[in-house]
Design brief:
There is one protein chain. This protein is an alpha+beta fold and 502 residues long. It is built from 17 helices and twelve strands. A six-stranded mixed sheet has the order 1-2-6-3-5-4, with helices on both faces. A hairpin with a 4-residue loop joins strand 9 and strand 10. The N terminus is likely disordered.
C-alpha cells in the first residue's frame, strides 16, 4: 500500500523526541535536514577561522507557532488543529496509544503489522482504490509504530483536507484485513528481518536493548521470523478491536487549513467511531544494572566492531529532560561534542560516533554508538568511559555549555519548520503528557539550565560503573582488548549464548 514505513523503534526522525538529529534518506523532512547539515558544516568551518574573520552573531529570531485549537468529540477523540500555511498542504495524523509495548511477547510486531494491514482495504474500498484516491489528492498514507503508540498519517493538498480526513477515518474504523494482503505484508516483514540480521548496527542495538530491559516490553526492537509466524488475521483483528478506540486516540491536523471546517469534517468522519476500553501495557521491572557487562555478538570475519554503550535514563515526561538533553549534547549528541572531537577528530577511530537520549512513557535510555576498526575496539571503550567519567566529575560550563544551548535552541525551529516535523513534535506532547506549551517554551527552558544541573544530569544519565556494552564483530580478533570486562557473554546473530571462539 502507499508509503509504508517499516518501523523498529529508532529509525525515524523525532519519533520518540530523541535528543539528537540524524538525517534519514527519503524522509519527508530530508530537505530541511540537508539544510541543517549545511548550516552546521558552515558553522564548524567558521569556528576554525580566525576570530577577526568571523562575522558577528546576529540576534536570535523570535520563535512563535500559530495558536492551536483543541476540541474533544463526544466519543472521546481529541482533535488538535494548528495552521501552518508555508505550503498549500495538510498533514493529518491519527495516533492510538498502543504500540510495541502492547504486543504479546510471542507476537512482537503485531502492532506494526496491524497499522499496515488496516491500510489494505475497507468495507467500501480495496487497497488499489485507496491508493488511487490518495494519489489523486497529491497525497500519501503511511504508518509509524513506536513503543507506546501507533500513528496513521495522511498528507496531501490542503484543498482536499475533508476528503483526506474521510479516507483516514475509513481506514482506521472500517478495515477488512484481506488475507491475501496480510500474506504479502508478512512476507515483506520476513525479508526485512533477514536484512536486519545482516546489519551489525541493528544487532548491537538489539542486544543492548535486550540486556538493558530484560522482560520489560521496551526490550523489543523488531519482530522475528517466529513472532511473525505467530501473527494471523485473527490476531490482527483482535488488536484492532481492542486498541483502536477514539477515547484512547487523538487527531492532529497541521497545515494550510482553517480550524472550523476541519472540526466539522472530523466530526462528520469520526463521529460514529464507538468508545471502548483498551487494555494497558504491562511493564515488568527491568533487571538491576550492576557493573559493566559486555555482550559480544560473534560475526566472523568482520573487519570492524559495532559498539553500543549505555544505561537507563528517565521517562520522556520527566522534567529533568532539558538538562539531560544538554548533558547528552555535550557528551556525544552534536557534531562538535566531546566524544566526536576525541575519537573522530583527534584519534580517527571512527567516522560517525553518536549519543542518543531516548524517552518512552515508562522509562528511557541513553546509548553511545560507533563503528570502529578492529584494532581500536578496546581503546574506543577506554575513551568513551574516560569522557563519561570526566563529564560526571566536572560537568560543563562556559563557551562549551553555551554552544550546546545554542545548538539545541537553533535546531528546534528547524525541526518544527515542516508540517510533518511540527506534527511529530505535537505527537510527543500528547503521547507523553508533556506541557501543552512545550514547543513554545523549549528554547527558554534549555537556556535556563545551569552548569550545576548539567553536572547532576551527567551523573544521572551517563553510567560509568554500571553499564551495558554490546559489540558486534569478530571476537577472535578483538578479545585481547577486552580483558577489563570481567562479566561477558558471547552470542550468535540470533541472540543465543554460544562458546567464545578461540
Amino acid at each position: 500500500m502507499s508509503s509504508r514505513k517499516f518501523s523498529t523503534t529508532e529509525d525515524t526522525v523525532d519519533t520518540e523526541d530523541k535528543a539528537v538529529l540524524f538525517p534519514a534518506s527519503a524522509s519527508p523532512v530530508s530537505s530541511v535536514v540537508c539544510s541543517l547539515v549545511f548550516v552546521l558544516a558552515a558553522t564548524a568551518a567558521l569556528a576554525q577561522a580566525p576570530a577577526a574573520d568571523r562575522p558577528a552573531v546576529g540576534p536570535e529570531r523570535p520563535f512563535q507557532l500559530a495558536p492551536r485549537l483543541e476540541k474533544t468529540l463526544p466519543n472521546g477523540l481529541r482533535v488538535i488543529v494548528t495552521r501552518q500555511a508555508v505550503v498549500p498542504k495538510v498533514t493529518v495524523m491519527l495516533t492510538v496509544l498502543a504500540g510495541y509495548a502492547n504486543d504479546p511477547p510471542t507476537q512482537t510486531g503485531l502492532a506494526n503489522l496491524a497499522a499496515e494491514a488496516i491500510q489494505e482495504g475497507t468495507k467500501t474500498k480495496n487497497s488499489r482504490q485507496i491508493r488511487r484516491e490518495i494519489f489523486g489528492m497529491g497525497g500519501t498514507l503511511s504508518a509509524t509504530v513506536s513503543q507506546d503508540y501507533s500513528s496513521l498519517t495522511v498528507r496531501g493538498l490542503a484543498e482536499f483536507a475533508p476528503r483526506l480526513i474521510d479516507v483516514l477515518a475509513d481506514v482506521a474504523m472500517n478495515p477488512t484485513l484481506p488475507a491475501d494482503e496480510i500474506a504479502i505484508l508478512k512476507q515483506q516483514h520476513v525479508q526485512n528481518v533477514a536484512q536486519q540480521k545482516a546489519s551489525p548496527q541493528f544487532l548491537a542495538n538489539r542486544e543492548f536493548r535486550r540486556a538493558l530491559f530484560g522482560d520489560h516490553p521496551y526490550a523489543r526492537t523488531s519482530e522475528t521470523e517466529a513472532t511473525l509466524q505467530a501473527i494471523d488475521r485473527a490476531a490482527l483483528e483482535a488488536f484492532h478491536r481492542n486498541h483502536y478506540h477514539p477515547n484512547s486516540a487523538f487527531l492532529l491536523v497541521v497545515g494550510a487549513v482553517d480550524p472550523d471546517p476541519v472540526f466539522a469534517a472530523v466530526e462528520k468522519a469520526f463521529g460514529a467511531w464507538t468508545r471502548g476500553d483498551a487494555p494497558k501495557a504491562a511493564f515488568a521491572a527491568p533487571p538491576p544494572l550492576s557493573g559493566r557487562h559486555l555482550y559480544f555478538v560473534q560475526r566472523p570475519n568482520s573487519i570492524q566492531s559495532s559498539i553500543a554503550v549505555g544505561n537507563f535514563a528517565v521517562k520522556r515526561s520527566d522534567p529533568r529532560w532539558y538538562e539531560l538533553t544538554l548533558a547528552n549534547t555535550v557528551f556525544g549528541g552534536a557534531f562538535n561534542s566531546r566524544i566526536v572531537r576525541n575519537i573522530r577528530e583527534e584519534k580517527g577511530y571512527t567516522y560517525s560516533p553518536s549519543s542518543i537520549l531516548t524517552g518512552f512513557a515508562d522509562a528511557g535510555f541513553y546509548r553511545f554508538a560507533a563503528d570502529v576498526r578492529n584494532e581500536v575496539t578496546g581503546p574506543t571503550l577506554t575513551e568513551v568511559f574516560k569522557e563519561i567519567d570526566k563529564l560526571r566529575a566536572e560537568g560543563s560550563a562556559g563557551t562549551e555549555l553555551q554552544g550546546a544551548k545554542s545548538y539545541l535552541r537553533g535546531v528546534f525551529p528547524i525541526q518544527t519548520a515542516t508540517q510533518i516535523g511540527l506534527a511529530n513534535t505535537l505527537n510527543n506532547v500528547y503521547v507523553f503528557g508533556l506541557p501543552k506549551d512545550y514547543p513554545e517554551t523549549f528554547r527558554a527552558k534549555i537556556a535556563a539550565v545551569t552548569p550545576e544541573e548539567v553536572k547532576a544530569a551527567a551523573a544521572t544519565l551517563l553510567g560509568s560503573d554500571n553499564a551495558v556494552i554490546a559489540i558486534v564483530g569478530d571476537y577472535s580478533k578483538v578479545k585481547d582488548q577486552l580483558g577489563a570486562f570481567k562479566e561477558s557473554t558471547v552470542l550468535d546473530v540470533e541472540g543465543k549464548k554460544t562458546a567464545p571462539p578461540q
